[in-house]
Design a protein that fits this description.
This protein is an alpha/beta fold. Helix content is about 30%, strand content about 20%. It is built from 12 helices and 17 strands. Helix 1 crosses helix 3 and helix 11 crosses helix 12.
Length: about 375
């Protein structure tokens, strides 16, 4: 029972640290920590220091703003790379951030702000995803230049498009394209690092894991990087929400916006203080159940912004009470079931979880 109608999101920082250690051990060159989108919605201010304490020495964020915020959180110690590329060169230099250079124009702009040949270059080469990165032709031109050869630290990276599917032919074709780029970039030279695998890539074959630095993101935060397979890591989040109203209604009573669900019998309905503004996708209406003290209760009717309705009819009367807590995410109720019900991916569910919830950070 609870007197507070807010949901509670519990985040296990110890599990995040354990997940990083496990992934770091799988990659031949160790692993960085991707902490973009405010640590996938879980809070960079808490997750960042936990990952740093676990041993992470390199971090990636998506944007310059995220990089500046993470630098303020972690101070001057770790390396921080910004995946979107080079936007404001002077701001990157002031915050000691490293841009992941995605175009020849960004390479030239970085040279100008440094005022000389840079000591470090981080370059993204596109290997078939056709999103960010230099074309193979542009990358080859860079690798043959004095700019590349003079840098004492060089990181070459790319990104896998279908790593969550180990049977996808694109994994092998991207590996071949990246291997060709590595050969042009002189991988045997001192100060060279390669980075290809993302969260799911850590669970492809040894050919992928031996490439170099891993860049796990969503897997750190408890999402399953291997869809359809047993979770190889540790879940991180649990989400609970209270019943804020309970009512008994007759058969043939419509429920929710649009009257899309109607009771087939006299029913007990409970209103849960959680909706699509808290990360329960509207597209998952009528497709997800929760647990109240181990008893399953299906959600019925359309998901609203702030609430959902549960069918409590078959639950013990002691649970049909205002204040009873429902487990929405927790043991046996993973992020992935929301994703399946909404026709989306666990990334979207994780990054959408309640901003209104009380957040409880656990060390273990």
């Amino acid at each position: 029972m609870t007197d507070d109608f807010r949901p509670t999101l519990s985040i296990n920082l110890g599990a995040i640290a354990d997940n990083w250690r496990a992934l770091n051990a799988r990659s031949a060159g160790g692993s960085a920590a991707v902490i973009k989108a405010d640590a996938y919605g879980l809070g960079a201010a808490d997750c960042g220091p936990a990952l740093l304490a676990a041993g992470a020495e390199r971090f990636f964020v998506a944007t310059l703003e995220e990089g500046c915020r993470l630098r303020a959180i972690l101070s001057g110690a770790p390396w921080i790379g910004v995946l979107e590329g080079l936007s404001d060169p002077s701001a990157f230099a002031r915050a000691a951030l490293t841009p992941v250079l995605n175009t020849p124009e960004q390479v030239q702009a970085w040279l100008q702000v440094r005022g000389s040949l840079p000591t470090e270059l981080v370059v993204h080469v596109d290997t078939g995803m056709n999103r960010l990165g230099l074309s193979p032709e542009a990358a080859a031109g860079l690798f043959g230049s004095e700019v590349w050869r003079s840098a004492s630290r060089r990181l070459l990276m790319s990104h896998l498009a279908e790593a969550e599917d180990p049977t996808a032919p694109s994994n092998r074709s991207q590996l071949a394209a990246f291997t060709a780029a590595m050969e042009q970039a002189e991988p045997g030279a001192e100060g060279f690092t390669a980075s290809l695998i993302n969260s799911s890539g850590h669970f492809l074959s040894e050919d992928f894991c031996r490439i170099g630095l891993g860049r796990p993101g969503v897997a750190l935060y408890g999402a399953n990087p291997c869809p359809g397979q047993p979770h190889p890591l540790t879940p991180v989040v649990s989400l609970h929400a209270p019943l804020i109203q309970v009512r008994r209604v007759p058969a043939n009573s419509p429920v929710g916006y649009g009257s899309t669900w109607t009771t087939a019998r006299e029913s007990v309905l409970g209103v849960l203080a959680l909706g699509y503004a808290d990360g329960w996708p509207r597209a998952a209406s009528d497709r997800v159940s929760v647990a109240l003290d181990g008893h399953e209760a299906p959600q019925v009717g359309r998901v609203s912004m702030d609430t959902v309705v549960l069918d409590l009819t078959d639950l013990p009367s002691a649970l049909q009470q205002v204040g009873t807590l429902a487990t929405v995410i927790g043991p046996g109720l993973p992020l992935e079931r929301f994703a399946e019900g909404a026709g989306t991916i666990n990334y979207e569910i994780l990054t959408s979880l309640s901003r209104r919830a009380k957040r409880v950070y656990l060390s273990a």
